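Hi P.,

Sorry for the delay on this. The queue was packed all week, but I finally got your sequence through. Input first:
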Amino acid sequence: MAKTGVRTETPTTPREAAEALRALSSMGTTFRARGGGTKFGWGAEGEAGAIVSTQSLGEVKEHNAADMTAVLGAGTPLAIAQKAFAESSQMLALDPPLIDDAATIGGIIATNDSGPLRHRYRAPRDLVLGMTIALSDGTLARSGSRVIKNVAGYDIAKLFTGSLGTLGLIVEVIVRLHPLPQRTVTVVGAGDDPKLIQEGSLALGHAPLEIEAMDVSWNDGSGRVLARFGGVAPEGQSATARTLLEKAGLDVTETTDDAALWTEQRDRQRAGDDELSVKLSALPADLAEIIAATERFGGSLVGRAGLGLCWLRAPSTTPVDDLRREVGAWARHCVLLDAPAGVRAEADVWGEPDPVTLQLMRAIKSRFDPAGVCAPGLYMGGI
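Then the structure:
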């Protein structure tokens, strides 16, 4: 929720968005971007004098089914875009938690949010072919094009993915699409030993299988390895997965009615009302140690087993610094995502930044937002 008295701008075109940013910058008014508001609390604490909403920039502008590309306004809810693509048996291979279907394409890209499909289709930055951004000086900058094989210009899309609005406002994106699987089947291996969960996930990760999504979960002393296969006849590969998980010592089941399983995986990336959540990256071979740390904090975990990405939920009373030290022997990064306001105000969201990386980030910030009015203080080091 925007604070009372904070000015809100709701541009209806990219040009209006650029003009709104120019006007705010000329007055020295700091601002933050807002899409559906599902991740508005992410990042470090930072005051802003205005909110620039992409709510009126929400439409599927083009859907080129033959080329498997689409042009989306930044405020387009992903759920609405997916329904449009599904009419042509296509999908945008992004499936983060949607929070009442409110999450927008601009917000998802700006926060680098993702879901289980990342296992096969990679990160949000790899699905964006082009992007239009509004800068604080009123410039509209564009990069990329409507074709999949594109090498034109500076790759703004990759730079702005995960930037949390600190460099400018994403107003439009061009994305690549993929075929919607005709059928899916999910194999689940369950057990109460973290080492067996790790062994099962590593066995699948090293196997020559075309897996749509491969996840792990851990909660209340037991865990699961989930592998989803798609296509016309996915049962052949799922049979191989069953064998591998059984050899790892897990109890194996299989289902074609798997939508609820993956919805649960996505939803558990976000914390409940009296919880906090952190996103961490570690080697897949360190999964058992991460699970053990999760248990010590009385928490739960979901993750992309083959990518080493995990979302750890713990009680909101958990000291973030203690949690970060506990997983620090294995986790390369540990970032606070969700937390009650009082916890977030006292917590170190990002951890200790690398000085060289921080210097580079500040240099980029000064080039794209020399006035320093975009999302002040939201990113590490207050850039």
